[in-house]
Amino acid sequence: MIRTENLEVSYSSGTRALHPCSLRFEDGAFTVLLGASGAGKSTLLRALNGLVTPTGGRVVVEGIGDLTTRRALQSHRRRTGMVFQQHQLIGRSSVLQNVLTGRLGFHSGLRTLLPPARAEKTRALEAIERVGLLDFALRRADQLSGGQQQRVGISRAIVQQPALILADEPVASLDPATADRVLSLLHGICKSDGITAIVSLHQLDFARRYSDRIVGLAQGAVVFDGPAARLGKTEVSRIYGTKPAEATDHFEPLPLKTGTYA
């Protein structure tokens, strides 16, 4: 379990990116942070992993405590997988090499200079197989499609065997059909492994389809917190500050076919 206590973030420019918020994320839940661009979703996600330093309040992780010390933060990051919007892969490196970077935090600096152990390669290949890319393990990452690259990003996150996955707009750059398949894959892995997931999205349809809980943000403030069933027109308007039809591209996700991937 991870929670925030009056967490807030302001930047040196004076902009308050996140107003004080207290949120509790239960183990195994798939939570979607929903909102328009600039709503504060990325700031909240990054604060949960210490990539943004709070200017007030704190983040508390069960079994670790608050993240005010370097040791606590390192321990938390080992247990936390990150999935980024722009994949953050090393293009000239193979899929396998990219996934192995997810294991760097478990070794000393000197050990990372040596070739990975067989056990680490096996663990990485298993993670690659889970996202359907085992045949591409030795291919350069920049030779893959956008959907495939994001699946490599998911594989890199799960090779950590994390308790928590934070995904920052993981399908924003993908077409609707590919985005649906990637989100379905991420959701399925998290549910199968009991991984707590906090995923930022701006697509209302996906939030309703995959979330156990939606936290809606607008202008840095939490304006909705509850299950998708409670997200009506009034709540959507509050999140996006506009009419629901104008808030997001509305489409019906395509049905998934077993064994097919983007």
Could you walk me through the main structural features you see in this protein, from its secondary elements to its overall organization?
The protein is an alpha/beta fold and 262 residues long. The protein has 2 domains: 2-79 and 162-247, 3-Layer(aba) Sandwich (Rossmann fold); 92-161, no CATH class. It contains 9 helices and 11 strands. Helix 4 crosses helix 5 and helix 5 (146-158) runs parallel beside helix 6 (176-193). The radius of gyration is 18 Å and the shape is globular.
Structural classification: alpha/beta
Strand tally, please? Answer: 11
How many separate domains make up the residues? 2
Judging from the principal axes of the Cα atoms, what is the shape? globular
Instruction: List low-confidence stretches.
Output: 244-261
N→C terminal distance: 32 Å
The average pLDDT value, as a whole number, equals 89
Oligomeric status of the shown chains? single chain
Strand order within the widest beta sheet: 7-8-9-4-10-11
Helical fraction: 25-40%
The CATH architecture category of the largest domain equals: 3-Layer(aba) Sandwich
How would you sum up the major sheet? 6 strands, mixed
Radius of gyration: 18 Å
Give the amount of beta strand, in percent. Answer: 15-25%
By CATH reckoning, the class of the largest domain would read: Alpha Beta
Task: Show the helix and strand layout.
Layout: E1 2-10, E2 16-21, E3 24-25, E4 30-34, H1 41-48, E5 56-61, E6 65-66, H2 70-78, E7 80-83, H3 95-100, H4 118-130, H5 146-158, E8 164-168, H6 176-193, E9 196-201, H7 204-210, E10 213-218, E11 221-226, H8 233-240, H9 244-247
Parallel strand pairs: 4-9, 4-10, 7-8, 8-9
Antiparallel strand pairs: 1-2, 1-3, 1-5, 5-6, 10-11
